[in-house]
Amino acid sequence: MALDQRVFFADIHVHPELPFLGTSFHRIIHEFSWETHLGLSVVAFYEHPFPTRAWAFRRLLRRIDSFVERYGKEIHTGPTDDPQPKKYILSIESLRILPSPRELAILWEKGIRVLQPMHFFDNRYGHSCGEDLVPVSKKGLTEYGVELLQEADRMGFIIDLAHMNGPTMWDTLNEVRRPVICSHTGVQSLVGSQRNIPAKVAKEVLRRGGLIGVMPWRHLHRGPITNLDEWTARYAETIMELSSLGGFNGGICIGSDRGAPIFIHPKFYLFNQVKTLREQLFAKDIDGEARWHEFLFENAHRYFLKHIGPCRLPIPSPDAMT
Ligand SMILES: [Zn+2]
pTM value? Predict the structure, then answer.
C-alpha cells in the first residue's frame, strides 16, 4: 500500500495479538492487522485465566515485556521531550487475573496506563454487561473493586468502562476523579444491547471530558446491515448519536477492537472505506472538516496528552487526513 493510500487515525482499542482462538482469527484478518495505520493506538493486552489466574498474570507480564522490548521508544508513558514520536499507549483488557490491587504498581512500572477492569464475566472487582448471553447483575463494583479503583486513580491510571454493566459504570464514575474512557462500544439509545454504553452514562463521560471509542462490530449498530456501505452508514449513525449526547463538543473517536476474534469487515478501515465514512458523516451534518479530524485523531490525541502528559505524538500530514 503506498503511503498516500494510508489513513491517519487514532484507535483506542487494538489487540496486537490474542492467544488461542484470537490468534488464528487475527491471521485470517491479517489485512486488517493493527500495524496498518499511521497514528496513535491504545494497545490492549488480554490473557485467558488458564490454567490459573496467577499463571496467566505471569504470562501477561511476559507479553508486555516483549512488546516493550520491541516498541519501547514509541510507547507513551508520561511527559517527555524525547524526540522519538510516541505511537502506543498500553492497556489491560480485564483485570480478573490481577492477583490484588498491590500488583498495580508492577503494571504501572511496565508502562501500562489504561485499565479496563471488566470483560465477559463478573469478577472479584465488579459486574459485567454479560454480552447479551447471560443475565446481567444489578450490582456494581464490589468492595475489592472500590479499593482497586481508588488505588488505580491515585496512581494515575485511566479507567476504561468497556464491558461493565450499568451499575458498575456508575460506581466507577463515583470512585475516580480523572475523566474515564469507554474504549470500544456502541450506544443503547440506538441499540439496546447490554454491551453498548447507556446514553446517560455516555453523557456523563463526555460532560467530564472523557473519551468514547466507537466500535464497528455489526451487532452494536442498527440493522439490517447487508453490505459494507450500509455497515459504514450505521457506524456513522452511532458516531453522530454519541457526538450529539456530548453536545458535539468532542470526545468521540475510533475504538476498533482490531485483532479480536469478531468479524469486522476487512475493508472497513481501508482508504476507500474511510472516504465513504467521511461522506456519510458529512451527509449526516457533521460540522465541517475540523470535526472530521477531531473524530479521526484529535479527540484521542488531546485526551491522552492531557491525562498522560505531553510528548511527541505523531502529527498527521494534511494529505493523509482527507
Ligand atoms: Zn473487548
Answer: 0.92
